[in-house]
């Protein structure tokens, strides 16, 4: 029989020995671990110990842990079923042909930092009457945090301030989640390319749209800089103990440090020294606080195929019944389009200090987190699914994005009547599915791990 442990061991020794020759390692890489846990309460304790949970099964979790976190988990009485080199967690990406400081040739469609800047400038140049690149801040390594502002009213585009209802899309809180950069970028490309399509035109004329594809360029560049994917999650701020990185999606202030985040700087889920300690989260804070017209926000992550809504910091449900009903109705509708699982974030485990708890709890913006494809680490490549999935994932999520933009004027509208349709000019997702299945390295070997429950990252 194929136990997950045997499968993972086979992966570790059999399929992942090709990479790393060109890598220059300055820090110890995390281990990919399998830990026994059956309930969300147990998973929360594991998250509290500093493990970034990447996949959930009924009998345990898989995730990344550095040595301190692993010691804490053991001390707390959890059974560590197996540990593996982090290459195992690549879910099949073999890293062949990768040149330093960029994506491997087979993933060249993904945008690195410079390519992203160029593309945003190109879009704004081509559509300068309705689009403009704005700098929201700078990272610790000096890279620009950029957003594309789309607004058809010249004075609003020029000033950056609008009286129209606003919708915000953010990607790349986590460095290795490169697909979370591509989807918002493609949304910008689509909105501008289709600006004369009547349904899109109506949205553009009546909404204020901001797209921020790459919030964490330092981390994202680090992930591809050494000649092999580094499985890097955090930003690249230097911590007081000499380690690097804060988990930007644990650094927001709303119930910061209320579980599911670590105060050990070496951990994957390090929350930072205080709320908004990081340049990147400060940039989002200042940006959101300066735009009182924002009504809808979507933060893209990978992977697991989930639609998540607040709260993350507590198992309690949102205590405003109408708001909860809006979230549940929207999530359910969007799940019909992208096939993802809709649920409250903390149904998986507690995570505090994330973006959407703050943007909803503090700012009153209806806020979602999408965990994009693939569904699991084992089926589809985890954080590194390959460029072949990009079109499918975009097509899966285009209608949900348009729906959010549409609802920005009044999300409560969703409770009253059916909404507009968003046209039929989109390719059906089904046509890509067989490609992904055939793409995989799994070849049916890992049947017993294909059905793991998703986790959030
Ligand atoms: Zn993430």
* Cα end-to-end separation: 30 Å
Rounded to an integer in angstroms, the radius of gyration calculated over CA atoms is 21 Å
Spans with pLDDT under 50 lasting ≥5 residues?
Answer: 1-26, 94-99, 423-454
User: Can you write the helix and strand succession as a string?
Assistant: HEHEEHEHEEHEHHEHHEEHEHEHHE
CATH architecture of the largest domain: 3-Layer(aba) Sandwich
Q: Report the total helices.
A: 13
Secondary-structure map with pairings?
Elements: H1 4-15, E1 31-36, H2 40-48, E2 52-57, E3 60-65, H3 67-75, E4 80-84, H4 113-126, E5 131-138, E6 144-150, H5 154-159, E7 166-171, H6 179-193, H7 198-206, E8 208-212, H8 217-224, H9 279-289, E9 294-302, E10 306-309, H10 321-338, E11 341-344, H11 355-361, E12 366-372, H12 390-407, H13 430-439, E13 453-454
Parallel strand pairs: 7-8, 7-9, 9-12, 10-11
Antiparallel strand pairs: 1-3, 1-4, 2-3, 2-13, 5-6, 6-8, 10-12
Helix pairs in contact: 6-12, 10-12
The protein binds zinc ion.
Residues 173-174, 177, 249, 301, 457 line the site of zinc ion.
Walkthrough of the structure:
The chain has 457 residues and is an alpha/beta fold. Helices cover 32% and strands 16% of the residues. It contains 13 helices and 13 strands. Helix 6 (179-193) packs across helix 12 (390-407) and helix 10 (321-338) runs antiparallel to helix 12 (390-407). The longest helix has 18 residues, at 321-338. Mean pLDDT is 85; it is low at 1-26, 94-99 and 423-454. Bound molecules: zinc ion (ZN). Residues 173-174, 177, 249, 301, 457 line the site of zinc ion.
């Amino acid at each position: 029989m194929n136990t997950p442990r045997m499968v993972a061991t086979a992966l570790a020794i059999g399929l992942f020995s090709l990479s790393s020759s060109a890598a220059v390692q300055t820090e110890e890489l995390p281990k990919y671990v399998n830990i026994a846990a059956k309930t969300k309460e147990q998973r929360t304790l594991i998250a509290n110990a500093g493990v970034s949970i990447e996949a959930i099964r009924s009998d345990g979790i898989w995730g990344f842990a550095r040595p301190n976190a692993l010691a804490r988990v053991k001390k707390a009485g959890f059974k560590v079923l197996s540990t593996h080199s982090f290459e195992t967690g690549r879910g099949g990406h073999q890293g062949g042909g990768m040149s330093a400081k960029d994506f491997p040739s087979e993933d060249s469609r993904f945008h690195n930092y410079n390519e992203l800047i160029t593309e945003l400038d190109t879009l704004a140049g081509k559509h300068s009457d309705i689009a403009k690149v704005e700098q929201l801040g700078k990272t610790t390594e000096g890279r620009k945090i950029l957003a594309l502002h789309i607004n058809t009213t010249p004075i609003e585009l020029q000033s950056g301030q609008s009286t129209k209802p606003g919708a915000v899309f953010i990607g790349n809180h986590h460095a290795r989640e490169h697909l979370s950069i591509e989807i918002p970028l493609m949304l910008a490309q689509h909105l501008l390319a289709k600006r004369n399509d009547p349904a899109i035109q109506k949205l553009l004329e009546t909404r204020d749209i901001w797209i921020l594809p790459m919030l964490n360029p330092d981390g994202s560049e680090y992930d591809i800089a050494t000649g092999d994917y580094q499985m890097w999650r955090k930003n690249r701020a230097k911590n007081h103990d000499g380690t690097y990185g804060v988990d930007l999606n644990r650094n927001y202030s709303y119930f910061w440090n209320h579980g599911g985040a670590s105060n050990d700087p070496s951990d994957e889920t390090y929350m930072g020294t205080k709320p908004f300690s990081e340049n990147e989260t400060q940039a989002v804070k200042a940006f959101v606080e300066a735009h009182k017209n924002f009504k809808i926000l979507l933060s893209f992550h990978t992977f697991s195929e989930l639609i998540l809504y607040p709260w993350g910091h507590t198992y309690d449900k949102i205590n405003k019944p109408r708001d909860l009903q809006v979230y549940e109705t929207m999530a359910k509708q969007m799940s019909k389009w992208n096939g993802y699982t809709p649920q409250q974030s903390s149904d998986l485990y507690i995570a505090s200090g994330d973006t959407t708890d703050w943007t909803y709890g503090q700012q009153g913006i209806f806020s979602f987190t999408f965990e994009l494809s693939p569904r699991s680490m084992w089926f589809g490549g985890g954080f590194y699914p390959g460029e072949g999935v990009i079109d499918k994932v975009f097509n899966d999520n285009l209608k949900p994005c348009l729906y959010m933009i549409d609802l920005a004027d009044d999300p409560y509208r969703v409770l009253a009547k059916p909404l507009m349709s968003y046209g039929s000019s989109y390719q059906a997702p089904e046509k890509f599915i067989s490609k992904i299945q055939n793409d995989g390295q799994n070849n049916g070997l890992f049947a017993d791990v294909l059905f793991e429950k998703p986790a959030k990252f």
